[in-house]
Write a structure and sequence with these properties.
Rossmann fold; three-stranded parallel β-sheet; three-stranded antiparallel β-sheet; 19 helices; about 50% helix; about 10% strand; ATP-binding
Length: about 475
């Protein structure tokens, strides 16, 4: 008998941006499904109508798309499925697994006040649980789950292990409110069942929910999915991640210039491990990722590690793909788009620009010589390198470059020949050449710059300073 295909889901609430912790949850679900030929689904949990906004939904979708976490089918709106949720509540009622509760909010508060005063549990026990339906008043009611009062509910969690909950600590939770709207706890179970979700991978702040949700599965006679509750992400100081630790939203990381592949790699490694592997490709992550590799302790965000991983991904990236993502970064930050000639130079120069750049701003800083137009603005130190002697030598070099073959070997030979004629080593000409070609003293190799700029632009820039 073949086992059912793996189906995972990511179910964010659209009340704000895509949090970096939510992004990791989405990534884990995506990796688990994609690595097993399964499906990865997206559900927008928009039942909180006061706080849910279309703008937040759009931000979540943008964040997932930037991260490259593609989902199968259309994104599902939980709110639009409210009639189905209500239908299941009515079905549980008909089966005797739920009941109508007519208690008012005042009565519930009075019960809790009395329980507190007497030192008893404040877990509400409805007097309507076993009431004769004939005694039901013509009044508003909620539908409550008829939870077991004794024994245990056991969750076999793929990350946390066996977790036991005493049933006398679980209340008869409300499934359908008096206005006919479903509660989150019911909606999640119905949606996961109808979407055929086999594995619920989510933050361990939902672990307590799993016990109550398992009771809904049991009441409906539905198979319970595999639960895997992953620890939250903490800041470098070991405290819950917050604004004081820096960026929280995925789009902030894009705007800071981190490549998506680097973020995927780093987030995968945040709380999950595969031996000592730190740097890996998407294909390796999909092949290796499993629930057994997820630790139980909270992971700590480390920006130095993130930058290191991102630098490795920039260096290893395909040049054309890197240029495409660089343009996405410029658009995300509101910067001016590249002109055709700038794009051409970047494409030619990516081989020497991407080494040792940890972010796109660092890469662009190295590429300033290629993106600049004449006349160049020169730093004071660069201007100082262009003394009369240096300008004279560059004046001799310029016509020779006009006739040289435009290869690295030929360029090195030509420059070395002119330097040698003046009793200088190549290194002595490097500073004035950098000043002439880039207007700066810290640049890529002068020969890389010549190859990226091309003969015409190189000669023109030297001509601006040559005596």
């Amino acid at each position: 008998m073949t086992s059912a295909p793996v189906v995972t889901r990511f179910a964010p609430s659209p009340t704000g941006y895509l949090h970096i912790g939510g992004a990791r949850t989405a990534l884990f679900n995506w990796l688990y499904a994609r690595g097993r030929g399964g499906r990865f689904l997206l559900r927008i949990e928009d039942t909180d109508r006061e706080r849910s906004t279309p703008e937040a939904t759009a931000a979540i979708l943008r964040g997932l798309e930037w991260l490259g976490l593609d989902w199968d089918g259309e994104a599902i709106s939980q709110f639009e499925r409210r009639d189905r949720h209500a239908e299941v509540a009515q079905e549980m009622l008909a089966r005797g697994h739920a009941y109508k509760c007519f208690a008012t909010q005042e009565e519930i508060e009075a019960f809790r006040d009395a329980a507190r005063a007497e030192g008893r549990s404040t877990l509400y026990q409805s007097p309507w649980r076993d009431a004769d339906p004939a005694s039901h008043p013509d009044a508003p009611f909620v539908i409550r789950l008829r939870a077991p009062r004794s024994g245990e509910t056991v969750i076999e969690d793929a990350v946390q292990g066996t977790v036991r909950f005493r049933n006398d600590q679980l209340d008869d939770m409300v499934c359908l409110r008096s206005d006919g709207t479903p509660t989150y706890m019911l909606a999640v179970v119905v949606d996961d069942h109808d979407m055929e979700v086999t594995h619920v991978i989510r933050g361990d702040d939902h672990l307590n929910n799993a016990a109550r949700q398992a009771l809904v599965y049991q009441a409906m006679g539905w198979p319970v999915p595999v639960f895997a509750h992953i620890p939250l992400i903490h800041g470098p100081d070991g405290k819950k991640l917050s604004k004081r630790h820096g960026a929280l939203g995925v789009e902030e990381y894009q705007a800071m210039g981190y490549p998506a592949a680097g973020i995927r790699n780093y987030l995968a490694r945040l709380g999950w491990s595969h031996g000592d592997d730190e740097f890996f490709t998407d294909a390796q992550a999909r092949e290796w990722f499993d629930l057994a590799g997820i630790g139980r302790a909270p992971a700590r965000l480390d920006f130095k590690k993130l930058e290191n991983i991102c630098g490795q991904h920039i260096a290893a990236a395909d040049d054309a793909a890197l240029l495409h993502e660089l343009e996405g970064f410029l658009a995300a930050t509101g910067a001016a788009p590249l002109m055709d000639w700038q794009r051409d130079r970047l494409a030619r120069g990516m081989y020497c620009l991407k080494e040792r750049a940890k972010t796109f701003p660092e890469l662009l800083e190295k590429a300033r010589f290629a993106l600049a137009e004449r006349p160049l603005e020169r730093e004071a130190r660069a201007e100082a390198a262009l003394d009369p002697v240096s300008r004279g030598i560059l004046g001799e070099l310029t016509p020779q470059l006009q006739s040289a073959s435009w290869t690295r070997e030929a360029l090195e030979e030509t420059v070395a020949g002119v330097a040698g004629a003046h009793g200088l080593g190549l290194g002595k000409l490097a500073a004035p050449l950098r000043a002439a070609l880039a207007g700066r003293t810290v640049t890529p190799s002068v020969f890389d710059m010549m190859l990226v700029l091309g003969r015409e632009e190189t000669v023109a820039r030297l001509g601006e300073v040559a005596a």
